[in-house]
Amino acid sequence: MKTNLLKVLATGAVLSFGGTAALATECIAPANPGGGWDFTCRQIGKILFDIGQVSSPVVVTNMAGAGGGLAFSTVVNERNTDADLIVAASSATSTRLAQNAYGGATADQVRFVGAIGADPGVIVVAADSPFMTLSDMVEAIKADPTSVAFAGGSAAGGFDHMKPLQIMKAAGFTDITQIPYIGVDGGADAITQTIGGFTQAMTGDMSEIVGFIQSGEVRVLAVLSEERVPGFEDIPTAVEQGYNVVAVNWRGLYVPGGISDAEFQVWADRLQAVAESDEWKEAMAANGLAPFTKVGNDFQTWVDGVIAETVELSKEIGVIQ
């Protein structure tokens, strides 16, 4: 019944748009106006036109429902070969696909074309914490897995929960179900829990903690990006500390699974052009995003790996069977 309802809603959303999508590129934002997916469609769409990658303004369709599942169903069932359609995606998309949150839908039903910016993950402690480095924390958890509780803005099994588990797996620790995690209502609540001493650490995104860094209330043990974040060059990455973990809330796109390889490459090239534009660099700086560019087959391979790892971790902690 749920699948049929999604199809009916999706068809209605497409029909309400009339024939416009056939005349121009359409970007589906799988949520209401405002927020990350809407930002991705509107900013990338505007720049695609501004720099001449498309011949007419990109039309944005907001299609909220099922945490992105309605848009996914629309693309798979109604628009599978539409080469003029792009869809905003993020780490939430890959996590939900890995955890079967879209009612049996799988990542290989679409093609992930690229990401060109990201909100890097962070591991944070209070300024007076005894942990001075990420390794200090890792060793404490190895000695007593229950001694370090994490607060995060996602529910158990969500993206924030996964970050410290990935680090501990990279450190060779396997008993990850013993590590306490408290899911609260957003990153601000999570950092407040940690500053207040109710948890020993916070797991979240860089954009959530900038004010707390500036006020001196926290110490960031690691940023989970490939390189240090511009403007915060004193914060080391987990990778450079010996833990090969990159966990970023990437901003990107997927396209219908039935388009040709040539059509897929066209979108990869267009997205690369946006990534290299001054307009996109200005948009990232204005919205607190860090550089993170992966396009085409490289990005598809990377997403496949992230989903496989998320499936494994989700099974270990009992989120999925």
Q: What can you see in these coordinates?
A:
There is one protein chain. The protein has 321 residues and is of the alpha/beta class. It folds into two domains: 2-118 and 248-316, Bordetella uptake gene, domain 1 (D-Maltodextrin-Binding Protein, domain 2); 120-241, 3-Layer(aba) Sandwich (D-Maltodextrin-Binding Protein, domain 2), CATH 3.40.190. The chain has helices at 2-16, 36-50, 69-78, 91-98, 134-143, 159-170, 187-195, 210-215, 261-275, 278-287, 297-316, and strands at 26-29, 59-62, 85-90, 110-126, 150-152, 181-183, 201-205, 218-223, 248-256, 294-295. Strands 1, 2, 3, 4, 5, 6, 7, 8, 9 and 10 form a ten-stranded mixed beta sheet that branches. The two termini are 23 Å apart. The model is unreliable at 1-22 (pLDDT under 50).
Question: What's a quick, concise take on this entry?
Answer:
The chain is α/β, with parallel strands linked by helices and 321 residues long. It contains eleven helices and ten strands.
Q: Specify the oligomeric state.
A: single chain
What is the radius of gyration computed over CA atoms, rounded to a whole number of angstroms?
A: 20 Å
Strand content: 15-25%
The name of the CATH superfamily of the largest domain reads: Bordetella uptake gene, domain 1
Write the CATH architecture name of the largest domain: 3-Layer(aba) Sandwich
- Biggest beta sheet attributes: 10 strands, mixed
Total helical elements: 11
Helix content: 40-55%
**What is the mean predicted local confidence, pLDDT?**
91
> How many strands?
10
What structural class do helix, strand and pairing data support? alpha/beta
Whole-number total of structural domains: 2
* String of helices and strands: HEHEHEHEHEHEHEHEEHHEH
CATH topology of the largest domain: D-Maltodextrin-Binding Protein, domain 2
Q: Based on Cα principal axes, name the global outline.
A: globular
Spans of at least 5 consecutive residues with low confidence: 1-22
Distance between the termini: 23 Å
